[in-house]
Design goal:
With about 250 residues, the protein is an alpha+beta fold. It has five helices and 14 strands.
Length: about 250
């Protein structure tokens, strides 16, 4: 039994120290970052303009030592002519909840409470990415501007996807670091097929809280309707306007 335990420990250590290989060749960190950023910088058929899909979420609440799970659907439309990234996170389980942004404002609707939280989004500088954890999605084309990027440990997920650790260049009250799981085929494929490169993201706060979001069934460049990113409060809904420092996900 002792020999078996030592062998398992050695295998774990090897995962931490061994380089990342693809087809027998070590993959540099810069290649993974380039594969992650490229479709958000490109034009024409090689660009990701929008995506829709399903997500699964695990949130660990440090103060309660509790793990909460949720799932739903997401739609994101990047920049375009307006330069504003719009998003919609529609939680279906365990309870309905809706997070919508038109690129300037964001609304969090809690139907069971008949309340909506409304807040203005920061538009400029590193704060636009780091002050609100969900907004890392808006800066995928230029992550190095806002984050220091290094390998996460281990460097590969169980499925073989690449793992990166990002730390905000400007201190953030809500986001201490971000772990991204980058699709291995996006990094290694030579056929130029367009894929959404983010398989999962883990957002970690300085208070010990962490949230992992995994993306499934992603559909690219379908042109989601403008109406998806507009929020109209149902009659009888209380509108709350918390300060930015209180507005987190």
């Amino acid at each position: 039994m002792m020999q078996k335990t030592i062998w398992i420990a050695l295998c774990g250590l090897m995962l931490l120290v061994c380089p990342v290989w693809a087809n027998g060749t070590e993959v540099p960190l810069a290649n993974v970052v380039r594969a992650l950023e490229a479709p958000f910088r490109a034009n024409g058929a090689s660009a990701i303009r929008d995506f829709e899909g399903d997500f699964e979420q695990e949130a660990y609440l440090s103060s309660l030592d509790q793990l909460q799970t949720a799932s739903g659907q997401v739609a994101v439309r990047f920049g375009g002519k307006t330069g504003l990234t719009r998003f919609r996170w529609e939680y279906r389980r365990p309870e309905p909840q809706l997070i919508i942004s038109d690129g300037r404002m964001v609304w969090v609707h809690l139907p069971q409470n008949r309340q909506v939280m409304e807040s203005e989004l920061p538009q400029n500088g590193a704060a636009a990415t780091s002050d609100n954890p969900l907004l890392f999605l808006t800066g995928l084309g230029n992550l190095e501007r806002h984050f220091e990027i290094a390998w996460a440990q281990p460097r590969r997920s169980a499925e073989g996807h690449y793992r990166l650790q990002l730390k905000p260049r400007q201190p953030s009250a809500l986001l201490e670091k971000l772990l991204l799981e980058v699709d291995r085929q996006s990094v290694e494929s030579k056929n130029g097929a367009l894929r959404y490169p983010v398989r999962a993201a883990t957002l970690m706060g300085g208070d010990g809280n962490r949230t992992t979001i995994r993306f499934r069934n992603i559909r690219l460049n379908r042109g989601p309707a403008d109406s998806l990113f507009k929020f109209v409060a149902p009659p009888g809904t209380e509108i709350l306007r918390p300060g930015r420092e209180d507005f987190g996900f």
